[in-house]
Amino acid sequence: xxxxxxxxxxxxxxxxxxxxxxxxxxxxxxxxxxxxxxxxxxxxxxxxxxxxxxxxxxxxxxxxxxxxxxxxxxxxxxxxxxxxxxxxxxxxxxxxxxxxxxxxxxxxxxxxxxxxxxxxxxxxxxxxxxxxxxxxxxxxxxxxxxxxxxxxxxxxxxxxxxxxxxxxxxxxxxxxxxxxxxxxxxxxxxxxxxxxxxxxxxxxxxxxxxxxxxxxxxxxxxxxxxxxxxxxxxxxxxxxxxxxxxxxxxxxxxxxxxxxxxxxxxxxxxxxxxxxxxxxxxxxxxxxxxxxxxxxxxxxxxxxxxx
Length: 307
Known about the structure:
With 307 residues, this protein is α+β, with helices and mostly antiparallel strands. 29% of the residues lie in helices and 30% in strands.
């Protein structure tokens, strides 16, 4: 008996050769719920962070690299900072910084997923392959009302490839008395580059891309995060008239890279005077923004506890 395909916490790459298109479908279940539930952010923040996590995994998987892909969003609005990063072994993590009082005054009913909560700012993508290789960073101003709007603009301008992007985060109702759970999904479809690495402009390619967009718009945003759907069942019907090729799905998981050693290095790098100023009752506390782990040190940098 063949194994059932994974339905959650995965990246599903695919191609539609007759339309000269390729894509990535990301579906997050336990991974995004673990990240969002532990932070307990206000709903508008959780929704945008869920979208950022799904978008990060989808875009990172379109690149050939070995390392970390980070999405960083900074603005002057109520949500001032959001970071999501993906490691090529499938690890995802993320966090947000925001002003709770200002956020309350800006949120309107039905405004979940509104990227205007970042205010004016930028979205940056960084590829880090380790100390022996140069880091690559691309940046684009925040524009539109969603993260998908800004990401689409980035792909069009920076990679000169036509793209359609949709992303969604939902809090799925509880079943059998359980707690509601967060879910997220993202679909990225790009026109494959020609020999010059760009989207072609001949009539045939333009027609095919128009048809690709038509098919993609048939997918409802809510379907991206529907726990009852599986990736092949979402992609197949979109391109049922065409030759869809599904490549091997890649699993995702939540994993933080903080450690006692890294926290100790942060403390020991501080001048003694700064350690004294930052200490409370003679102790320095380092808290990981991603997972909430706490590391305690005395003023000399000696560990008081070690998880």
